[in-house]
Amino acid sequence: MSNKNNDKTFYQTSMMSALIAGLYQGDFTIGQLLDHGNFGIGTFNDLDGEMIILGDEVYQLTSTGKVHLVDHDITTPFAGVVNFEPTDTVSLIELTKAEFETCLEKDFVANNAINAIRLTGKFSYVKTRTVPAQHRPYPPMVEVVKHQPIAEMTHVSGVMIGFKIPEYMIGINVPGFHFHFISDDRTQGGHVSDFILTEGTAEVEIFKDFHLRMPASQEFDRADLNPDDLKAAIHTTEK
């Protein structure tokens, strides 16, 4: 049994390169994931929407625009969590996504560690996208993202959580900043493409311990997790 108060590890199930390879079915439950963290993001079986973990509440942000809590016995093909206890807090006003990331890189994040980030506030604009559920035989992820719905929200309050991952972890995770958003009324959200912050508070915690749990499936064991075009594929699917 994990000690949640003392566990300062970024815990991840499966790898981004496995999603790129079309491995959209997981063998790790949401309940098991919550044993290792109370804050995180990921996806669901069949790539059915985006995941955001806030405490013991796990939300599914679907491509239809619906948001709902999920049962803890369902499984995930890819997710990362931490026990979040921010060590740095800063109040911010009137920033674009690019300006926000520049601000964090200047004063708060560690480029060669894993950074957990929460941005709570009012946004004049948030642009998200959410992958629709896929069906076997699964298409490659670079094809899936060509058909993902885009949502644009204006004058919305909510919370944006995610991570900044080091460049050397490409394939294991997604290098750079990666955020999911959910509105305060829990009715809309998704993978963040862009935003303009009106006013808010950013909180950061740096993690230097990392645990990767690999799926037990033969499909995972046989997949090509280091294709020649991995970097380009991740850029296409996430950026």
TrEMBL record:
InterPro entries the UniProt entry points to: Acetolactate_a_deCO2ase (IPR005128)
Annotated PANTHER family: ALPHA-ACETOLACTATE DECARBOXYLASE
A biological-process GO annotation: acetoin biosynthetic process
Source lineage: Bacteria, Pseudomonadati, Pseudomonadota, Gammaproteobacteria, Vibrionales
Gene designation: budA
Listed pathway(s): Polyol metabolism; (R,R)-butane-2,3-diol biosynthesis; (R,R)-butane-2,3-diol from pyruvate: step 2/3
UniProt catalytic activity: (2S)-2-acetolactate + H(+) = (R)-acetoin + CO2
Annotated EC: 4.1.1.5
Source taxon at top rank: Bacteria
Protein name: Alpha-acetolactate decarboxylase
Family: Belongs to the alpha-acetolactate decarboxylase family.
Keywords recorded for this protein, A-Z: Acetoin biosynthesis, Decarboxylase, Lyase
A GO MF label: acetolactate decarboxylase activity
Taxonomic source organism: Photobacterium phosphoreum
